[in-house]
Amino acid sequence: MHYVGYAPLAAAVSNAGGIGLITALTQKSAEDLRAEIVKCKKLTSKPFGVNLTLLPALTPPDYPAFAKVVEEEMEGGQLRLIETAGHVKGLAPFVEQFKSAGAYVIHKCVAVRHAKTAQRLGVDAISMDGFDCAGHPGEYDIGNWVLFAIAARQLDIPFVASGGCADGKQLAAALALGAEGMNMGTRWMATAEAPIHQKVKQALVDGDENSTALVMRTMRNTERVYRNKAAEAVLELEKEHPGDFSKIAHLVKGDNYRKVFQETGDLEDGVWSAGTVMGLIDDIPTCQELTDRIISEAEEIIQGRLQDMVTA
Ligand SMILES: Cc1cc2nc3c(=O)[nH]c(=O)nc-3n(C[C@H](O)[C@H](O)[C@H](O)COP(=O)(O)O)c2cc1C
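Above: query sequence and flavin mononucleotide SMILES. Below: predicted holo structure tokens.
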């Protein structure tokens, strides 16, 4: 998660029993990423991962340098999980590089078609990110309920359910649908350890499932974001100038995330991402409290309600 996935949160998630991810591209340079990875190793002895998001950009980041640092920092085995995301087009060389270094590569995508391409390229697993998700839900608008069921039918490799996940009932449902677990984004932002402004965390608690907007649809680069004045302005500008990125660039630039999350906490300071899962977020627990709650709720459902149904 851009400007959220730093070492302290990744380590807190891993210490709580999940696998936390550092967002590579939030770091200004490959060497900054190395420093963040080294920091994470000091904060946890548990496995953690790195997300490398492959997006088209006017000035693309130095992907080979980032990938090389990730590969080098895999030594010792604590960092083995690499989550790739974004365009499946440029994915092949990175899968090859990470796999030959011994990584477990999980590719996050929003369409089963892309998941199958990633599977063919040799990734180990898929993070199936449905329409409910924060970030980029793609252009197909297939809800998680159908998406996960199709993934279970059509993929030969494991997948985790992603997008809109926050509680143990959903974990039990995801497991029932054939997923091996779930990936959470927005829910981790509303935790004590998330390195973002308290006002943003509170906004996620106060928001609900209707508090998001889909911007950049006219550019076929849809992003689900927190519905604020900036998002409304983008929607208006897109109506007037469909497909013209230059008209909205100032409102959607990545640096807005940094400003809102780290500097001002002013929710209106540009467009930033959050998911419909806000409807399921009522508090700001520690990562440990959240993980324990999710697992015990899932166990309760599986061993109680569901077990009772089959034995009745
Ligand atoms: C603030 C924010 C920033 C994100 N940045 C990225 C990113 O840089 N790369 C990426 O692959 N996914 C990114 N995502 C998507 C998440 O990794 C995850 O797939 C998504 O949040 C799951 O949906 P959920 O928020 O409903 O749990 C971001 C999500 C949020 C909320």
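The chain is about 45% helix and 15% strand.
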